[in-house]
Structure formats: C-alpha cells, structure tokens
Amino acid sequence: MKPTMRLALTAACLSTALLAGIVLATTFAGEGWSREERDTLATLRLSQLPPTPADPSNRVETMPLAVALGKRLFFDPRLSSNGKVSCASCHDPKQQFQDGKPVDQGVGTGIRRTMQVVAAGHSPFLFWDGRKDSLWAQAVGPLEDAAEHGGNRLAYARLMQQQYRRDYEAVFGALPDLQRLPAEASPVGTPTQQAAWHALDERSREDVSRVLANIGKAIAAYEKTLHFGESRLDQYIEGVLAKDRHAGELLTPAEKNGLRLFIGAARCVTCHNGPLLTDQHFHNTGIAPQGPVPQTLGRRTGVTKVVNDEFNCLGRFSDAAPEQCGELRFLATDGPTLDGAFKTPSLRNVAQRPPYMHAGQIATLTDVVRHYRAAAPANIGKSELEPIRLSEQDVQDIAAFLGTLSGPIVERGAPLPSAP
Ligand code: HEC
Ligand code: HEC
Questions:
Q1: 232: left (phi over 0), alpha (psi -120 to 50) or beta
Q2: Is the C or the N end of the chain the one with fewer CB within 10 Å?
Q3: In angstroms, what is the span from residue 312 Cα to ligand 1's centroid?
Q4: CB of 267 closer than 6 A to ligand 2?
Q5: What is the C-alpha to C-alpha distance for residues 138 and 130, in angstroms, rounded to an integer?
Q6: Contact by Cβ (8 Å): 340, 359
Q7: Measured between alpha carbons, how far is 393 from 260 in angstroms, rounded to an integer?
Q8: pLDDT digits (tens, 9 = 90+) for 338-383
Q9: Closest ligand to 123 CA?
Q10: In testing the pocket of ligand 2, which one of 261, 284, 372 has its CB within 8 Å of the most ligand atoms?
Q11: Ligand number, closest to the Cα atom of 137
Q12: Residue 283: CB within 6 Å of ligand 2?
C-alpha cells in the first residue's frame, strides 16, 4: 500500500468513527425519539401555550382594580347564604384550586367533582358539561346554586353596597339604588325569593342582575391571572429538543415508557393534546354516570343550557358584539356524540388532585389507565374508546408518566392586592 493511500484510509476510518460518535451522541441526546414523536412532544411544551384568549364579553378582565376586587370576592365567605362558603372553600389554592372530594360540598352536597380553575380561560365552554361560555358567566352559577353558595342576587347586590361600594364603583360605575327593594330576591332562589323577584319591576331586575354579572366579571379577571408553571415533562422535552445531554436524567425509564405509550399506542393524545393536555372538547369515555338523569346526559344538557343562559355572550349583560360570539353562534347543538359526553380535563398537575372524572368515579391514576385499557361500553350514549393492548407494567408506567406533569401554580398578569 502506498503511504498516501494508507493516509487516506486512516482519514476515512477516522471520519467514520467521528461520524458514528456524533450519531451516537445525537441519538443519546435525542433520547431515541423518532422525528414524528419529537414533533408531537414539541406540541406539549408549556412554552407553546398561547396567551389566554381575550374575552370580549368582559370589558374589565384586564383591569388591575377588577383583578384585586375579584380576588377579594373569590375568598369572601359572606358571598353565601350561611356566611361560610366562598369560591375558595371548594377551589382551595392549597389543594390545586380544588377540594379533593368525589362530589362537591357547599351549603349542600353537589353531584359533580370540583374542577380546578387554573388556565380555565383557555376553555371556550366551562363546567363538565360546558353549560357556560365564559368565566364570568360561570362564576354567577355557583353563587345562586342551592348546593354551593346558596345565595341570591339581591342579597349579593346589597353586600356590594355595604362592603365593597368604593371598589365596585371604581370598576363598574354607580351601584343601583336598592333602598325600596326587598332584602332577598332571585329568579332561581327559594319560592319566597322567586316570588319577590317576580314582584320587582323590569328595570330593578335588570339592575340587580347586572350587579351579579359584574361580580362574575371581577372574579373572572382574577381567575385569569392563575397559570400553570413548568413541569418536569416540559424541562425534559425542552432538553430533548435542544439536544441537551443531561435531558435523559429528568425522567425515569418507566416515565419515558409511559410517555411513549401516551403519545403512541395508548392514543391518549387524540384528546389530551397541546400544552394543557386537553382538546377542550367533550367526549363520551364510558364513565359510569352518577346523579339525577338530565345531568348524566352531560354535553347534551350543557348545550341547551348555554344557549338559553341569560348571562351568555349574546345576552344583555355581555360586553361583546354579537359577531364576537363565534363559539356560541356556531355551536353544534345536536348529534349523537353529545350524549354522556363530558369535558376533557387538563392533565397538568393531575397527580395532585385525586379522585378523578366528573363525579370522582375513579380513585387512582392506575385505575384511570385500566379504565382506558378495558374501554367498557357506555351506559348512556356510545363510548368513543376502543380497548388498548397494554401490559400491567405499561399501565403502571403511564400512571407514573402522568406524575411528570406536576408543576407550580403561578399568579401573574396583574399586581397582587393586599391580603383579602
Ligand atoms: C360547593 C363547591 C363549589 C363552590 C363554592 C364553587 N365551585 Fe366552582 N366548581 C365546583 C364544581 C362541583 C364544579 C363542576 C360542576 C359541574 O360541572 O357541574 C365547578 C366548576 C368550576 C369552574 C369550571 C372550570 C372548567 O374548567 O370548566 C370554574 C371556573 C369554577 N368552578 C369557579 C368557581 C368560582 C369563581 C366560584 C365562586 C363564585 C366557585 N367556582 C364556587 C364546585 C364549587
Ligand atoms: C376520546 C377522548 C379521550 C381519550 C382518547 C383519552 N381521554 Fe382521558 N379524559 C377524556 C375525558 C372526556 C375525560 C373526563 C371524562 C369524565 O369525567 O366523564 C378524561 C379524563 C381523564 C383523566 C382524569 C382527569 C381528572 O382530572 O379527572 C385522566 C387522568 C385521563 N383522562 C388520562 C388519560 C390517559 C392516560 C389516556 C390514554 C390512555 C386518555 N386519558 C385518553 C378524554 C379522553
């Protein structure tokens, strides 16, 4: 062999070795994910979450004074019939803005599990059945619900006048004159409150209802400041995409297998997708219904209610022009998929808020995954799920993976008011 040739060969060997080394390093740093998997992973990162969409039906939602007022109202138990229940009684910041109970407990006992409220402004429809179309319209619901705050709108208007006058008027303008009105009245309250309501003239009814809507708008402004912080999964994916050699240390092999199944064979991402791990839609997943019949129909009942809600985007208390209410105007109000369908919840911080599903039907994440594996037929409507082939180890791994979605909850976007 000529010396030049030997040299060339050595150089070729060297470069092959070098290339192999680079390939090995990238595979290692890329954690063995295929290009397609990496593309899916990239969509789950919190950094991809767009800002919370503006709600044109609430003109005060970004006003710092409204945020401050809303925060005080959220934590104030005087907004209830017995003086003991605030939004925070069920949506406790120390418990993921939730209560850890299968069904809620307020002035009475409810029929559904308390939902967490962080990042709820990303959702076009609120509640498990989507019967409200904005955060503020949602907030007025529990205030007059007999099982929750159990209050009535005239009493709330009086509370604003007696305890919150200055702050309320700074945001919404003058409160109506309530002097000649009874102590209590509401179209959805006790028979006495309803009778008092119907005895009011139209103008007073509208004035009082507007105060209730405004309470909702202030609370919504506060809720919009609550966001999810980065989880271990976000750090892992960012690391993988940046080819950080230490990324692999952020998840255990079991969690990585769970993630692979979640975005692959187990098809969880069909519904739990995007940075919040939800498509914000309603699906029938064959969860055994609980509660009185109309409510178990889920989305079927929800669409009728939201269309008829006096506080919806098209209603007289909305600040939006009708053409800004696209979600409501183009809502599908019929079809078999509505029966027994409930909202896909976000899976961020999910490991920290058992029990699961719309009435707390499932106690642990492992049992949630077993439910998906079996895909039993639904009692109401038709389940969209199909059985999945998963070993017991796979089930455990997916449950372990769900634990990587935990992160802090942060309040930002508005100055913090002094203690409530
Ligand atoms: C007695 C407990 C209780 C109280 C008090 C309560 N909630 Fe809820 N909250 C629930 C339950 C239960 C649900 C789900 C109900 C359903 O879907 O039918 C819910 C759902 C919600 C949702 C929907 C989240 C989503 O993603 O759709 C928001 C937002 C919310 N509550 C905010 C509030 C606010 C604001 C207040 C105070 C005005 C409040 N809640 C008072 C129990 C409560
Ligand atoms: C067809 C859409 C769909 C698919 C596919 C799907 N989910 Fe869900 N998921 C939902 C809906 C809807 C709910 C709420 C159901 C209810 O309460 O009735 C839910 C609830 C959950 C909950 C409970 C969250 C809570 O706060 O209560 C977890 C955990 C969960 N899903 C994980 C998964 C995993 C893991 C997979 C894959 C094995 C998966 N999901 C596949 C739609 C889906």
A1: alpha
A2: N
A3: 17
A4: yes
A5: 9
A6: no
A7: 13
A8: 999 999 999 999 999 999 999 999 999 999 999 999 999 998 999 9
A9: 1
A10: 372
A11: 1
A12: yes
